[in-house]
């Protein structure tokens, strides 16, 4: 690929991000009570101790999601909405550890779903995942087959630009390939990513949300 002229690229990027910022600032809320419990699942992505509270990949931004996601999980479970949680879980041989520092090793506290979320919906299904994309896990495929009537996913958790985005894109593409309708709702206040000098969270969050919306995800300001 031939790179575009730098100043032109930066001007176009700034204009596009400015438009998307205004779009995100005016998103509607989605009411939990408006969702059909028999065809809806709350999908919680990687709200584990290793991303929220301890270890090389933990982030205080993710920790701030624990309480509101626990509250949503409790409300969903109370209405009979299925709750599913992915938990990043690796062995020392996991190829992902060639890209990221060691994290969420199987059997460690890092690989466990944050306690408040587990307590909020004790009957939730927890699926361990060995890659950034939970949709590819065999256990999720088995779960999906057992829940064929589910046509709405509410997706929350972290990281917006990695595991959340990959799950959303894979889920939408899989269903599109089979001409199967799927409503994907992403409450923007219940997803986040880590913040470092070479990974500014506001930028990566925004670009990931843009990508998910372009693929057909429904962005919501909040799930109330």
Task: Sum this structure up briefly.
The protein has 224 residues and is an alpha/beta fold. 39% of the residues lie in helices and 16% in strands.
Which CATH C-level class is it? Alpha Beta
Structural class: alpha/beta
CATH-scheme architecture:
3-Layer(aba) Sandwich
The CATH superfamily label reads: Isochorismatase-like
What is the molecular shape? Answer: globular
The proportion of residues forming helix, as a percent range, comes to 25-40%
Strand content: 15-25%
**Quick check: average pLDDT?**
94
Taking the alpha carbons of the first and last residues, their distance comes to 44 Å
Number of domains: 1
CATH fold node name:
Rossmann fold
Instruction: Tell me the series of helices and strands, N- to C-terminal.
Output: HEHHHEHEHEHEEHE
Walkthrough of the structure:
With 224 residues, the protein is α/β, with parallel strands linked by helices. The protein has one domain: 3-Layer(aba) Sandwich (Rossmann fold). The protein has eight helices and seven strands. The mean pLDDT is 94. Strands 1, 2, 3, 4, 5, 6 and 7 form a seven-stranded parallel sheet that branches. Helix 7 (160-177) packs parallel to helix 8 (201-214).
Comma- or semicolon-separated keywords:
224 residues; Rossmann fold; globular
Break the fold down into its secondary structure elements and pairings.
Elements: H1 6-25, E1 40-45, H2 49-52, H3 60-63, H4 66-78, E2 82-88, H5 115-120, E3 125-129, H6 138-146, E4 152-158, H7 160-177, E5 183-187, E6 191-192, H8 201-214, E7 218-220
Parallel strand pairs: 1-2, 1-4, 2-3, 4-5, 4-6, 5-7
Helix pairs in contact: 7-8
């Amino acid at each position: 690929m031939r790179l575009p002229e730098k100043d032109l690229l930066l001007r176009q990027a700034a204009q596009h991000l400015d438009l998307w910022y205004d779009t995100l600032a005016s998103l509607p809320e989605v009411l939990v009570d408006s969702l059909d419990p028999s065809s809806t699942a709350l999908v919680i992505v990687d709200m584990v101790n290793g991303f929220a509270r301890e270890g090389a990949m933990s982030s205080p931004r993710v920790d701030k999601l624990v309480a509101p996601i626990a509250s949503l999980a409790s409300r969903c479970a109370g209405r009979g909405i299925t709750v599913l949680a992915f938990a990043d879980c690796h062995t020392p041989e996991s190829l992902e550890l060639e890209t990221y520092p060691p994290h969420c090793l199987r059997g460690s506290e890092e690989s466990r779903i944050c306690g408040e979320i587990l307590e909020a919906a004790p009957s939730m299904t927890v699926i361990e995942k060995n890659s950034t994309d939970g949709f590819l896990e065999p256990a999720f495929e088995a779960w999906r087959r057992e829940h064929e009537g589910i046509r709405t996913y509410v997706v929350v958790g972290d990281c917006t630009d990695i595991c959340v985005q990959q799950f959303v894109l894979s889920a939408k593409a899989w269903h599109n390939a089979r001409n199967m309708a799927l409503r994907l709702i992403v409450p923007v206040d219940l997803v986040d990513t880590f913040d470092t000098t070479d990974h500014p969270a506001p930028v990566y969050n925004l670009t990931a949300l843009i990508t998910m919306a372009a693929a057909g995800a429904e962005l919501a300001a909040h799930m109330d």
